Amino acid sequence: MKRAFFILLFICIAFAGTPFFNSPSQPPLTGLTDQISLLFQFVVPLMFIMIILAAAAYVGGQLFGTETRAKASVWSQSMLTAVGIVALILFLIYAVLPGFFSGQLSSAMLDLYNPLTHQGAIPTILSIAQTGFAVLILVMIIIAAVIYVLGPMFGSETRARAAVWSNNLLAASILGAALYLIIYNVIIPIQVGIFTQPIAVGQCSGGASLGLYGGILVDVCILVSIIILVTYMLSRFLKVPEWEAYLNIELSNLMSSFVVIIFVIGLFATGSAVTSTWYDSVSYCSAAEAAIAFMSSSVSESALKASMDVYKIQACTSMLSTFSRRTGEFVLTQTYKVFPGVDTFVSVTNVLSFTLISFYSTISVQIALLHLVQGLMIPFFLPAGLILRFFPPTRDAGAFLISLAFGFQFLFPTLYIINGQIFNSIGGEPYRSPETLINFLCGPLKYGAAGYLFNPNASPLFKIPIPGFSTLLRTLGTLTSEGLLNAVSMSEFIPILEHIASLSLLVLFMPALAMMVTISFINVMTKFIITKG
Predict the structure, then answer these.
(1) 156 neighbors 209 (Cβ within 8 angstroms)
(2) Phi and psi (nearest 5°) for 325?
(3) Taking the CB of residue 93, how many other CB atoms lie within 10 A of it?
(4) Which helix (H) or strand (E) holds 61?
(5) C-alpha angle with apex 371: 367 to 373, nearest 5 degrees?
(6) Of 222, 256, 465, 470, which is the most buried if we count CB atoms within 10 A?
(7) Any residues with CB less than 8 A from the CB of 166 and at least 6 apart, and which?
């Protein structure tokens, strides 16, 4: 039954963004809002009456025998459970129902918390909870004093019970008052001083921060703290050992979650401050930005430039391989290629171009992944993990998201920076374009100085008015150009081959190493946060 209820609830939420009919979104009808207001006016006072009756029945039951005390305890707990369920239903009706029937669920849910104005239902609930928390502390102190004063007027058994009751109430009130001071005099200043500041250093405008989630994170922390403290005081008041033991554990988990928040944010800021200055002596906003700068300038641009040079050589050699010559004027005479060795260069450039394009594609994917890390880890995954860390059902999921954000925001790009420093320390040089080879094959002066001198369209020697001199020069130009081009060796490709060899470590080995170390770190840090061996 519970599963079916949750399935229906999720289906309703999924279809609540648009109205059931084809008409445009409209504000809630006046009749609907009037009915909801009437429901609130009738149910809310009834809830307060039920709470008062439950407290009175429980307190009165303690003055009688064991059977009456047990019946009063069960009856008061059932009454309070019913009040809690009704309160949850009223909250859903107030927040979801008007927007559900009007197709404006997003705007209705925005009323819970507006990050631009920091107003809405959640801040209002926090304000009411703060006031109610203080009033509850005072009421419990007064009740403890009244019980302690009235107890000696009756028998010894009643006097002993009154002393125990007053001690428990006074201890719960003192603990609540101390935590009240901690929450509203320590946590709130920490929110202003830490959670609203950007987690970034260096020459950046604004930097990366928790964004809109910073205020929500602290509000959730305070709300969960108040719920735990109020329930803890009620458990002491109602004398329910199971609640008290459970809430003791939850209170310690709450404090550990708050310590984890301070630890993670401080570690993020320190890691960014350290790693952002490791590359190129320039201050970056984060390690991911420094890794992107290294991969873009030292790896991606050089691989792209090398691939363009190889394609130039491939195009020119493919064109030159089509040139042929006959020994005579007849059709049956022998035909041979002018540049017979150029086919080898075409095959070599095919292999080199495929390798360089594969390198460039791999580097582009890595840079895109680093951009996703820069844009998602701090603004989304980190605050989501910190918020989920406070709730018992999602505590492990929150620890995983925190570890995921820290691993990919700090460790993953740091490994790229370390590999870049190693690459520079072992003599890694930027790509040197083979300009001589490209000009020799594709340039306007294709065959060097000799080709220029014997080029009838460029050389001034052809303008010398000597009979037969121009014919001699044309013959020498043909022989010289073909001979010089056929003299090109494979050693001209050494700069490109050296560059491919230097990039192979960064392109093929570094991503696998960085991902393997990061995943191992995420698993270890998740166990560390949830304190599991």
Answers:
(1) no
(2) -145, 150
(3) 15
(4) helix 30-61
(5) 115
(6) 222
(7) 144, 145, 147, 148, 151
Q: pLDDT tens digit string along 342-362?
A: 777 777 888 888 888 888 888
Selection from 314, 278, 311 nearest residue 201 by Cα: 278
Residue ranges of alpha helices (H) inside 321-453 are 342-376, 382-388, 395-406, 412-425, 435-442, 448-453
pLDDT for res 353: 83
For 238, the 3-state DSSP assignment is helix
C-alpha to C-alpha distance for 156 and 143, rounded to whole angstroms: 20
Task: Write the DSSP string, 248-282.
Answer: HHHHHHHHHHHHHHHHHHHHHHHHHHHHTTSSTT-
Inter-CA distances, 2 with 5, 12, 97, 415, 421, Å: 5, 15, 21, 48, 57
Euclidean distance between CA atoms 109 and 97, whole angstroms: 10
The encoded tokens of residue 466 equal 């000597």
Q: What is the pLDDT of residues 133-166, one digit of tens each?
A: 677 777 777 877 777 777 777 777 777 777 777 7
Is pLDDT above 80 for 400? Answer: yes
Strand partners, 324: 337
Q: What is the pTM of this model?
A: 0.54
- Averaged pLDDT, 30-53: 68
pLDDT number for residue 478: 55
Copy the structure tokens of residue 177: 């008052």
| 3-class SS string, 286-341 | CHHHHHHHHHHHHHHHHHHHHHHHHHHHHHHHHHHCCCEEECCCCCCCCEEECCCC
Q: What is the distance between the alpha carbons of residues 430 and 424, in angstroms, rounded to a whole number?
A: 10
334 close to 326: Cβ distance less than 8 angstroms: yes
Q: How many other CB atoms are there within 10 angstroms of residue 229's CB atom?
A: 23
CA distance 226 to 131: 11
Separation in Å, CA 418 to CA 19, 280, 291, 412, 530: 54, 12, 9, 10, 30
CB atoms near residue 126 (< 10 Å): 16
Q: Mean of the pLDDT values across residues 80-97?
A: 68
What are the C-alpha distances in Å from 125 to residues 88, 91, 188, 227, 465?
13, 11, 16, 11, 104
Find out whether 386 and 413 touch, Cβ atoms under 8 Å. Answer: no
Give residue 191's pLDDT. Answer: 53
Q: Look at residue 439 and give its three-state secondary structure.
A: helix
As a whole number of angstroms, the distance between CA 228 and CA 389 comes to 15
Give the containing element (helix H, strand E) for 111. Answer: none
